[in-house]
Amino acid sequence: MRQAGANGQKPQPGKSCSLAYPGIPTIFINNFIDMELNCMMTEIDAIESESTKNTHRSGNLTEVFDVSYMIRGKLLEGLSSVLLTSHTCTDFDIKHQLSTAKGMVNADRMRQLLEQAEDSHRHFSIEFPTWALTAASPLFKQCHEAQPGLSAIPVKLGNLLPGYVMCVLDWYGHALQNKHWNDFLPESPSVDGHDKWYWVYCYAAMRVLGLNDFAAQLQMFIESIIDDLATNISNYAHLLNTLRADDPIMFQLAWYTVMNLQQPSPHLTQLDCETLAEHFPQFAGLVNTILQAH
Fold first, then answer.
1. pLDDT for 187-237, tens place per residue?
2. Which of 148, 194, 267, 269 has the fewest Cβ atoms surrounding its Cβ within 10 A?
3. Domain boundaries, the chain
4. Pick the residue with more confidence: 180 or 99?
5. How many helices (H) and strands (E) does the chain have?
6. Organism's domain of life (predicted)?
């Protein structure tokens, strides 16, 4: 498997086509042969059928991946997709994301994050096996089924540095190679200082990539520490800048906000609430809806 990495090089020209889905960033899927993919999936089905005799399958993605080490290995074969990531992070977001990454990512990823922070007008390429992407992301699978035979994959990350996408794909690639599946979230995740924000940014990366089953596992953890994340107006801004307005975590954040506003010393002042309403009207509307119903 070729490791995910950012080199910032200009992509080679190739066939590409835009596919837009409501509420999801427009992406392109790498050019690969549909017949080859079908043959590969047929082979995987045969392996899976043999390895799951008399075995109950719950449908959970992690359990499906754990059915067979051979199946996971097959997902790393074949051609790779090149994700051409771009971001529009503000200095406010960049400073926080870099502080979060310290101590949580390796030296190479930290160097790449610093490079990405310096230039928001440049595409940073990330290469990853196509079959692995389509197996875990319904979005990539839907794109391929709609128009097979595409080449580059531009992915607009908004207020998120591409390095966090790399961290997610690093884990996914290693998990596919390991004999036993390892979830992204360890048994005792670090929540000290800025460390807890690492899980938020990686969660946002999973959502952009359409890795929704993996993101759902991380979502529960983030919701469980929402009171440690939403402690002041700056932290609210980081959350609302990074997560989509329709992200499922938004309801939990809005509910927590309503409960906190009713405390004697709430985290948000009246001026803070007015600022949030001005810059994040959809979230403010959700808070008001819960307030009226409460």
1. 999 999 999 999 999 999 999 999 999 999 999 999 999 999 999 999 999
2. 269
3. 19-224, 229-294
4. 99
5. 15, 5
6. Eukaryota
